[in-house]
């Protein structure tokens, strides 16, 4: 029975994650195009996208490489962009932390914005799910995205600059994050963190090497944490 229910949760996760392929395909293709324009060959591009497997960090690192940014700044920037994965992991630990080590290692590699967004909503909606069911759902949610992301990157690297600008593939990046962030703006701390990060990023847009984004991210996290503390104290006082 456990295997059957886990399988059903896998397919539920698969269905919930499938809509993201409509942004993963142009997003991955765009990265492949940018990578070849930046001078990476097919092998380098595919190794980059397969090992890092983090679209936003890949774009950030690639842009900085094109700008001849010092290696240390590139590494720090890519890590900072991916710092949200540490927060995702901390958020998922209560639900997946009891899984075997090899499953947690696979989940760490497959933790992306889409798999986290689908999974955390599902886990909060059905708190009685078992660990195998949660892991099955998590893997299912990222299964339609992973192979298509890698294939789309390869397609973009092969086609390169032959893709016309009129296709406007760069729409995929903001659309992806808007689609994921919107449903998660459920509490005041979430909204405060987002607003502060937006304002600070606009104020620091002129700082070299995109360091303004790092400052904005830190400011947003601190503002969100303070807003959550304030909300908890107010709740305790009432």
TrEMBL record:
The membrane-spanning stretches of this chain are 20-40, 135-155, 191-216
- Which Pfam families does the protein's record reference? AzlC
Q: Which UniProt keywords apply?
A: Cell membrane, Membrane, Transmembrane, Transmembrane helix, Transport
- Where is the major localization of this protein? membrane
Q: Where in the cell is it found?
A: Cell membrane
Q: Name one GO cellular component term.
A: plasma membrane
* Listed InterPro entries: Brnchd-chn_aa_trnsp_permease
A Gene Ontology annotation in the biological process aspect, one of them, is: L-valine transmembrane transport
Membrane topology per the entry is:
Multi-pass membrane protein
Its family remark reads: Belongs to the AzlC family.
Protein name, UniProt field: Inner membrane protein YgaZ
| Lineage, uppermost ranks | Bacteria, Pseudomonadati, Pseudomonadota, Alphaproteobacteria, Rhodobacterales
Q: What gene is behind this protein?
A: ygaZ
